[in-house]
């Protein structure tokens, strides 16, 4: 049914010239009236006659394929070949078995009816002599009268065999991959079972537990208490408690506010309340505060913190927030970084009391074996002396103008609100010098500050 529907579809697409060529090539194998009727209905009768004469069957239609190729209807021949390939590939095993059985039957039929087939062939040729073209077309169908069988030419057999081989190879590869994955999974499951069922887990004794705990130990160190010590029991702020800090938290920045104190000597004082100046100092992701400088007012009955300055692990240093005209204090501990602060603040006096807390990650051995050392800043520079015109290397450690002025009995005002002051520790150089913005160097003489014209190579570092 499917094959006859395909033939109807193919014949409906033939042109009139193709029909006439088809009827002519078939020649005297069909009656004259069927050969001369080239209409669509006449072509169907021609097909019906070919089926009756077993020139074509639903299993063997090579004759029709060759006819289409001879009249150059290649599209029709191609469709018939595709149909033949699709039908034979779905039942290749049955076809091969059927062919073997038919060959056996064919041999028996030839042995029994050989003479009759030859006489029948001679009679048929005498009645209807065939042309050379028809003989070449009809040659593959010599055994059509004995049994229906599948015919495969060498090209189709090789193409079909190659297709089947590729499909089987692909399926074999997929099956091999699946089996390999299953084998690996089984091995992993087996090892896990052996690990958890037969191998005893090591017990955590006191030594092992201590070793594990010592891997990450946070060491907290309290700094000194600055300001009025009598007020340390009356703290008004505590970062750890107010902010609910944990050991893993880190300081990411500091917000500072200060104002001018009108009732005293116009000195800038730190104050959280009623501030006129605000500054936010933010740290980088890989940066910590490693050192803090404080400036304390000692003139008042209750001393207060009037200035503060921060140093970081990346070598940055802030300007002094507030005023640096006070007693110089510095706090830092080797390998420790700032974590939080506690203190007391007053609306009138500013910060009256302050204490810093420092932290480091270490082990118990490191904590016991390492005694924290206070870190100070040392700065040096080079200049040419005006006295002997020699090249001088001068070095000093940090201090404040308030302290060095009283220590050396100096006169005059401070150099600059942003200046850092250093006391000489080298053999040559000024007794005190000031550095502004890490580039400009000043020396103090006769109550005034003077800038070095030849100062160079300004280098500052934090040392224990």
Automatic annotation (TrEMBL):
Transmembrane segments: 172-193
Domain DED: 2-82
Gene3D superfamilies the UniProt entry points to: Death Domain, Fas
PROSITE patterns: DED
GO terms for biological process, alphabetical: regulation of apoptotic process
Keyword tags: Membrane, Transmembrane, Transmembrane helix
Protein name: DED domain-containing protein
Species annotation: Rotaria magnacalcarata
Lineage: Eukaryota, Metazoa, Spiralia, Gnathifera, Rotifera
């Amino acid at each position: 049914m499917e094959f006859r529907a395909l033939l109807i579809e193919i014949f409906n697409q033939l042109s009139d010239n193709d029909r006439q060529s088809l009827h002519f090539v078939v020649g005297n194998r069909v009656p004259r009236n069927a050969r001369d009727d080239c209409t669509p209905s006449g072509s169907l009768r021609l097909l019906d006659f070919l089926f009756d004469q077993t020139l074509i069957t639903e299993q063997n239609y090579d004759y029709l394929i060759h006819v289409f190729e001879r009249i150059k209807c290649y599209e029709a021949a191609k469709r018939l070949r595709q149909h033949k390939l699709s039908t034979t590939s779905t039942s290749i095993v049955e076809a091969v078995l059927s062919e073997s059985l038919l060959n056996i039957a064919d041999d028996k039929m030839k042995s029994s009816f050989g003479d009759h087939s030859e006489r029948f062939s001679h009679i048929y040729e005498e009645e209807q002599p065939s042309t050379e073209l028809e003989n070449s077309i009809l040659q593959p169908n010599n055994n059509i009268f004995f049994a229906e069988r599948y015919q495969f030419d060498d090209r189709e057999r090789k193409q079909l065999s190659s297709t089947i081989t590729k499909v089987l190879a692909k399926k074999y590869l997929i099956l091999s991959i699946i089996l390999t994955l299953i084998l690996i999974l089984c091995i992993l499951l087996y090892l896990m079972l052996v690990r958890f069922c037969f191998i005893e887990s090591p017990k955590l004794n006191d030594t092992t537990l201590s070793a594990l705990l010592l891997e990450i130990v946070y060491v907290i160190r309290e700094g000194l208490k600055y300001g009025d010590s009598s007020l340390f029991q009356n703290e008004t702020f505590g970062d750890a408690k107010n902010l609910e800090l944990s050991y893993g938290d880190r300081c990411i920045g500091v917000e500072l506010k200060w104002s001018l104190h009108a009732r005293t000597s116009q000195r800038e004082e730190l104050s959280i309340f009623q501030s006129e100046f605000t500054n936010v100092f933010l740290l980088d992701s890989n940066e910590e505060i490693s050192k803090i400088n404080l400036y304390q007012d000692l003139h008042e009955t209750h001393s207060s913190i009037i200035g503060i300055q921060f140093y970081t692990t990346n070598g940055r240093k802030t300007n002094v927030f507030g005023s640096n005209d006070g007693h110089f204090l510095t706090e830092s501990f080797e390998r420790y970084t700032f974590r939080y602060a506690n203190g007391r603040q007053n609306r009138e006096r500013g910060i009256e009391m302050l204490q810093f807390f420092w932290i480091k990650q270490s082990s118990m051995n490191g904590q016991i074996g390492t005694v924290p050392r206070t870190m100070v800043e040392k700065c040096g520079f080079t200049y040419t002396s005006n006295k002997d015109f020699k090249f001088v290397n001068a070095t000093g450690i940090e201090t404040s103008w308030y302290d060095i002025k009283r220590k050396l009995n100096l006169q005059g005002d401070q150099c600059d609100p942003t200046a850092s002051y250093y006391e000489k520790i080298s053999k040559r150089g000024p007794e005190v010098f000031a550095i502004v913005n890490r580039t400009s160097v000043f020396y103090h003489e006769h109550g005034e500050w003077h800038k070095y014209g030849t100062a160079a190579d300004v280098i500052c570092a934090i040392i224990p």
